[in-house]
Amino acid sequence: MKKLEGYLKLPEYYRFVSMLLVGYPDQDPPQRPRKKLYDIVIKN
């Protein structure tokens, strides 16, 4: 985290907590097959 704080040139009174990457995928993979609802829901 210290290396990233230096790269971003954050003042000392800021503390880097987390990072969220946002963007578009480079590829368009096919959607994974989904399980049917009755396969994952348990009714008592």
Low-confidence stretches: none
Strand content: under 5%
Outline the biggest β-sheet. Answer: none
- The string of secondary-structure elements, in order, is HH
Category from helices, strands and their pairing: mainly alpha
The total strand number stands at 0
Number of helices: 2
How would you describe what is shown here?
- There is one protein chain.
- By secondary structure, the chain is mostly helical.
- Helices cover 25% and strands 0% of the residues.
- It has 2 helices and no strands.
- The longest helix has 7 residues, at 2-8.
- The radius of gyration is 21 Å and the shape is elongated.
- The termini are far apart.
- 0% of the residues are buried.
- The mean pLDDT is 83.
Itemize the secondary structure elements and their pairings.
Layout: H1 2-8, H2 37-40
Key features of this structure:
44 residues
In short:
With 44 residues, this protein is mainly α. It is 25% helix and 0% strand. The chain contains 2 helices and no strands.
